[in-house]
Structure formats: structure tokens, C-alpha cells
Amino acid sequence: MDPSGNATKQQCVAKIDPDNPALLDINNEKVEKFTKGEEYKIVVSSNIKSKTGLALGNDFTGYFAINYILNLAGNTALNNTRSQIVVISDLHLGVDDVFAETQKNKAALVNFLTQIKNSPNVAELVIAGDLLDGWFVPMDYVLPDSQSTFFDSVAANNQSIMDAINAIITAGQIKVTYVPGNHDLLLTEADLQRILPGINQTRDDV
């Protein structure tokens, strides 16, 4: 399939992999890289036989697609259209950098989030769990009176990252979606909306 959704046909080259006779290598006729952004359907007929007379037991049909290489600065082939989804997870932002997992790379994370915000091709940022860590604390750590206060403290300890995510949300060009993980299951929908106003949340019903 071409980028417009139209089916096109092209010849292919098939040969036994020299390093593994059980594999069949299939390439385009010119044996060059496939065009990015296109979907391909491979059809191998059982009527085709190898030089030794072997053939497939049945016709084979397979599908694959070539994605564009993610380039947050912008991909000219996408013509400034927003079609890319960036998924990040397991940031494990802690309440105290004395024992938190995420410490030295905070500046790099802010830089990455800023690149996402400025990208002309990103349509959605998905935060797939374990954003604010509620588990990774010492046994003798004294928790505040409420979970809300605790997660407010976690957010405050990682304010630059919260600001970077909020900047993406308020810019209004990229949808930001949060999916709970096991380390932030106690982070309620209301608490997250207070910390990151306008964020989209996907949660189980139970």
C-alpha cells in the first residue's frame, strides 16, 4: 500500500538465507530499502518450487509495514502532519532524591519532553505507568497523612519534569495520555488532574 492507501504491485527476490537454510529471505526487485510509511503484503505461491523441487505446503500471505524513523525535529516526508505516538514509561519519579531511582537524568528527561513539545509530527504522548513512584521509599520513611499530600510532594520534588509535561498539555497540539502502573496505582484521577491539569487518563473500571 502506498501512502494514499492504494495497492501497488512489484516483483520480489526470494532466496534461501546462506546462514540458515530454514529461512527464506525476501526483498524487493532492486534489493534496496523499502519505502518508509508504506504497508506491504507478501504473497508466496505454493506453485513456486526451489531448484531442488521443494515447495511450500500452502500459499503464504504475510503483511508488514515500514515506519518512519522517529525524528523529533521533524520528518519532511510527513509534511508536518501529526501521526506519531511517543510512549514512555517507568520514570519512577520519587519523593526524595536521597533514595529516588530517577536523579541524574532529570535534565535529560526535561530536554526530551521539550523536544516532543516542539515536534511537528508527534500527535500523542503516552505515559504508560509508574510516573510518580509510591513504592520506592525506605522502610523507616514517614508517610504524610494522605496519599494526595504524598503525591503532591513527589510532583514538587520533580517540578521541572511536571512543568515540561504541563507545557505539552497547555500548548494544545499533542494529546498527553496517562495509564496507571503498579507503582502509582494509588495516584487517583483527581490527584493527577490537580498535578497535570488537562491530562487524558485511561483507567480500568475496577
Brief characterization of the structure:
By secondary structure, the protein is α/β, with parallel strands linked by helices. It folds into 2 domains: 54 residues, no CATH class; 126 residues, Purple Acid Phosphatase, chain A, domain 2, CATH 3.60.21. The protein has 4 helices and 8 strands.
Task: Please specify the SSE layout and strand pairing.
Elements: E1 12-17, E2 20-28, E3 39-44, E4 60-65, E5 84-88, H1 106-118, E6 122-128, H2 147-157, H3 159-171, E7 175-179, H4 189-195, E8 200-201
Parallel strand pairs: 5-6, 6-7, 7-8
Antiparallel strand pairs: 1-2, 3-4
Helix pairs in contact: 1-3
Q: Which consecutive residue ranges, at least 5 long each, have pLDDT under 50?
A: none
How many discrete structural domains? 2
Secondary-structure element series: EEEEEHEHHEHE
3D shape: elongated
Number of helices: 4
CATH topology of the largest domain: Purple Acid Phosphatase, chain A, domain 2
The share of residues in extended strands comes to 15-25%
CA radius of gyration: 24 Å
What is the count of β-strands? 8
Instruction: Assign a percent range to the helix content.
Output: 10-25%
CATH architecture of the largest domain: 4-Layer Sandwich
User: Which structural class should the secondary elements be placed in?
Assistant: alpha/beta
Distance between the termini: 41 Å
Query: Could you describe the largest sheet, including whether it forms a barrel?
Result: 4 strands, parallel
Please give the CATH class of the largest domain: Alpha Beta
Q: Please state the average pLDDT score.
A: 85
> What order do the strands of the largest sheet run in, or round the barrel if closed?
5-6-7-8
